[in-house]
C-alpha cells in the first residue's frame, strides 16, 4: 500500500507556514533586541534571516521535485550523502528534536489555554497529554483530517498576527516609533552574528512540506510553489511583527520584556490585549502541535521502509493510509518525556543538530546534481552553486556559534547522535 496524493497546493502551503510559526514570534524577539544597537538593525537582521530561509527553501524545492518521496530530508541525506547520515537525522528527530518539541509545545498550549479559561495550573500536564492523544487520533484517521485541522489553525494564527500588525502600524501614528532608535551598546559585527542565531532557529520549519511530498498533488509543481510562497509570507509577517514591537515598545522596551506581544497588545488594547495574545499563542501552539504529529512521522516511516527502524513503522493503515504505528511511537515517547519532565534537556542538547542537518541537506544538492540523481525536473534552484554554498556556510557558522556558546550541552547532543550509530548497524547488519 502506498500514500495517497491528496494534499493540494493550499494544504502544502499551510504545512510550510504552520511548520515555521509557533509561539516563538510572540515571545523571542526580545533576545534579538538585547543583542543589537538600533531598531533598524533589528529589522535588517530579521530580513537577512528571512533571505537565508528563502535560500534554504529554494534548495529544498529542487530536492523535493527530484525525489518527491515520504521522509523528505531523510531521503536527500540518504541518497545524496550516505544512508547513515539519513538514519541519524531520523534518529535525532524521533529521540529528541520532534518528540521533545511535541512535549514542549503541548505543555505551552495547555498553559496558555488554561490561563485563557481561568483553569488551574495543575491541569496543564493532563491537558497537554489529552491534546497529544486527540491530535494523534485525528492524524491517524487520515492526512486530510490532520491537514484540515492544520489549515484552520494556521489561518487563525496568521489572522491574529495580521490584527496585531494592523493595530500596531496604526498605533505607531502616536509617535512611539521614534523610541526605536534608542541604543543598546554592543560590538556591531559580533552582536549581529549572535542575533542571527535565534532568528534562524525561528525561521526553521519549511522542511515539513518535504516530509509529506508523497502525499502532495503534482509535487513537481506544488512543492516549489508552497515552499516559496509559505516561507515568503512568514518572512513578511515576522518583519512586520518586529516593526510593531519596536513602534509600540521601543528598542529598550523590547529588550526588557520576555512577553513583547502581550506588552505591545496591552499598550494598544489595554487588558484585552493580553487576553488576545494569550488566545493567539494557544491557537498557534495547537496548530503547530498538529503539524508536529502529522509531518515528521513520515520520516520514521521512510527509515523503517529501508529496514533501519522496526518494519512495523512502515505499515500504512489499510483504510486511512497513514503510518499509525509511527504516529503512536512518536506520541507515546513525547508523552513519556512530558510526564518525566526530561523533554527540555533532550530538546536543548540536540536542537543545534537541526542546523547541522539543514546544512548537510543543502550540501546533498551538489551530490544530486553531480551524479544526476533523480529525474531532471522543470524546477532548478536559481543562483546555483553560489546560493547553496552560502547557505551551507551559514549553517556551519550557526552550529559553531551554538557549540561555542554552550559546549557542554552541544557535547551531550553529539553523544546522543553518536548513540544512533550502533542502532543503525544493528538494524542494517547483514545487508
Q: Note the gap between the termini.
A: 24 Å
Structure annotation, total helices: 20
CATH architecture: Up-down Bundle
> How helical, in percent, are the residues?
over 70%
The outline comes out as globular
The CATH homologous superfamily: Amino acid/polyamine transporter I
CATH topology: Amino acid/polyamine transporter I
What is the helix/strand order? HHHHHHHHHHHHHHHHHHHH
Beta percentage is: under 5%
The total domain count is 1
**CATH class call:** Mainly Alpha
Structural class: mainly alpha
Mean pLDDT: 91
Largest sheet geometry: none
Unreliable spans: none
**Total beta strand runs:** 0
Which value, in Å, is the CA radius of gyration? 21 Å
Oligomer: single chain
Describe the structure.
The protein has 431 residues and is mostly helical. It has a single domain, classed as Amino acid/polyamine transporter I. The chain contains 20 helices and no strands. Helix 1 packs across helix 13, helix 7 crosses helix 13 and helix 11 packs across helix 12. The protein starts with 8 loop residues before the first helix and ends with a helix.
What is the secondary structure topology, with strand pairs?
Layout: H1 9-20, H2 24-27, H3 29-35, H4 39-66, H5 73-80, H6 83-117, H7 124-140, H8 143-171, H9 188-203, H10 208-211, H11 219-255, H12 260-269, H13 271-294, H14 297-305, H15 324-340, H16 343-350, H17 353-371, H18 386-405, H19 407-418, H20 420-428
Helix pairs in contact: 1-8, 1-11, 1-13, 3-9, 3-11, 4-9, 4-11, 4-17, 4-18, 5-6, 5-17, 6-7, 6-13, 6-14, 6-15, 6-16, 7-8, 7-13, 7-15, 8-11, 8-12, 8-13, 11-12, 12-13, 16-19, 17-18, 18-19
Amino acid at each position: 500500500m502506498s500514500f495517497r496524493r491528496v494534499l493540494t497546493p493550499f494544504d502544502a502551503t499551510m504545512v510550510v507556514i504552520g511548520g515555521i510559526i509557533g509561539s516563538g514570534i510572540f515571545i523571542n524577539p526580545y533576545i534579538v533586541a538585547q543583542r543589537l544597537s538600533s531598531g533598524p538593525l533589528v529589522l535588517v537582521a530579521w530580513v537577512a534571516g528571512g533571505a537565508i530561509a528563502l535560500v534554504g527553501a529554494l534548495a529544498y524545492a529542487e530536492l523535493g521535485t527530484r525525489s518527491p518521496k515520504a521522509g523528505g530530508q531523510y531521503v536527500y541525506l540518504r541518497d545524496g550523502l550516505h544512508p547513515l547520515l539519513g538514519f541519524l537525522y531520523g534518529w535525532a528527530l524521533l529521540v529528541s528534536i520532534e518528540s521533545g518539541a511535541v512535549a514542549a509545545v503541548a505543555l505551552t498550549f495547555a498553559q496558555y489555554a488554561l490561563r485563557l479559561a481561568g483553569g488551574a495550573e495543575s491541569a496543564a500536564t493532563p491537558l497537554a497529554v489529552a491534546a497529544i492523544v486527540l491530535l494523534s487520533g485525528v492524524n491517524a484517521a487520515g492526512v486530510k483530517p490532520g491537514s484540515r485541522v492544520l489549515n484552520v489553525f494556521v489561518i487563525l494564527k496568521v489572522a491574529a498576527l495580521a490584527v496585531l500588525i494592523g493595530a500596531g502600524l496604526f498605533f505607531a501614528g502616536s509617535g512611539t516609533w521614534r523610541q526605536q532608535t534608542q541604543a543598546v551598546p554592543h560590538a556591531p559585527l559580533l552582536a549581529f552574528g549572535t542575533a542571527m542565531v535565534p532568528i534562524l532557529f525561528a525561521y526553521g520549519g519549511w522542511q515539513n512540506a518535504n516530509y509529506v511530498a508523497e502525499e502532495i498533488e503534482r509535487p513537481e509543481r506544488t512543492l516549489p510553489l508552497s515552499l516559496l510562497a509559505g516561507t515568503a509570507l512568514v518572512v513578511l509577517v515576522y518583519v512586520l511583527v518586529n516593526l510593531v514591537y519596536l513602534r509600540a515598545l521601543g528598542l529598550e522596551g523590547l529588550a526588557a520584556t520576555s512577553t513583547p506581544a502581550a506588552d505591545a497588545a496591552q499598550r494598544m488594547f489595554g487588558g484585552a490585549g493580553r487576553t488576545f495574545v494569550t488566545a493567539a499563542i494557544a491557537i498557534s501552539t495547537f496548530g503547530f502541535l498538529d503539524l508536529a504529529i502529522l509531518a515528521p512521522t513520515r520520516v520514521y516511516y521512510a527509515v523503517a521502509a529501508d529496514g533501519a527502524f522496526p518494519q512495523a513503522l512502515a505499515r500504512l493503515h489499510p483504510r486511512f493510509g497513514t503510518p499509525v504505528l509511527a504516529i503512536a511511537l512518536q506520541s507515546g515517547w513525547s508523552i513519556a518525556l512530558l510526564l518525566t519532565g526530561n523533554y527540555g534537556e533532550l530538546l536543548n542538547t540536540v536542537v543545534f543538530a537541526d542546523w547541522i542537518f539543514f546544512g548537510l541537506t543543502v550540501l546533498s544538492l551538489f551530490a544530486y546534481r553531480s551524479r544526476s540523481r533523480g529525474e531532471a525536473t522543470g524546477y532548478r534552484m536559481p543562483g546555483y552553486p553560489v546560493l547553496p554554498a552560502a547557505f551551507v556556510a551559514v549553517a556551519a557558522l550557526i552550529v559553531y556559534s551554538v557549540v561555542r556558546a554552550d559546549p557542554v550541552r552541544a557535547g551531550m547532543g553529539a553523544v546522543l547522535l553518536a548513540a544512533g550509530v550502533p542502532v543503525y548497524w544493528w538494524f542494517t547488519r547483514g545487508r
